[in-house]
Amino acid sequence: MKVLKFGGSSVANPECIRSVAAIVLAAAKRDRIVVVVSAFQGVTNQLLQCAHLAEKGRTEYQKLFAQIAQKHRDAINTLIKKHNRRETLALLDERLKELEDVLHGMSLL
């Protein structure tokens, strides 16, 4: 079994993600694989910044959260075929709502 790990710069934009997908598909033809991917480049730091802002009760976290959400929606819109996109966007929106609720809760405390 082979483990393939891709850091944030490997999934920085749709072109990079397509390259990763090609590598994964090629490796899967030769061996059993496990794939580990990091967050999009810069998103981990943005998430931490959101949490710090929310923790301090500063509403600026909402704008940063919206940027993170849009980055993910843009990636889906670019990478996923139209007939599969609606379901994927719905799953993303569920996860984003959970994160938004946590951030909101942090801002209230």
Q: Which features characterize this protein?
A:
109 residues; mainly alpha; two-stranded parallel sheet; 4 helices
Question: Describe it for me?
Answer:
With 109 residues, this protein is mainly alpha-helical. It is built from 4 helices and 2 strands; from the N terminus they run βαβααα. It has helices at 14-30, 43-55, 60-79, 82-108; strands spanning 2-6, 33-37. It has a two-stranded parallel ribbon with strand order 1-2. Helix 2 packs antiparallel against helix 3 (60-79), helix 2 (43-55) packs parallel to helix 4 and helix 3 (60-79) runs antiparallel to helix 4 (82-108). The N and C termini lie far apart (46 Å).
Give a short synopsis of this structure.
The chain contains 4 helices and 2 strands, in the order βαβααα. It has 109 residues and is mainly α. The mean pLDDT is 96.
List the topology elements:
Blueprint: E1 2-6, H1 14-30, E2 33-37, H2 43-55, H3 60-79, H4 82-108
Helix pairs in contact: 2-3, 2-4, 3-4
Largest sheet: 2 strands, parallel
State the end-to-end distance: 46 Å
**Large-scale geometry:** elongated
Label the structural class: mainly alpha
For the biggest β-sheet, the strand order reads: 1-2
The beta-strand count equals 2
Strand content: 5-15%
Q: What is the percent of helical residues?
A: over 70%
**Low-pLDDT regions:** none
Series of secondary-structure elements, N-terminal to C-terminal: EHEHHH
Averaged pLDDT, please?
96
C-alpha Rg (nearest Å):
16 Å
Number of helical segments? 4
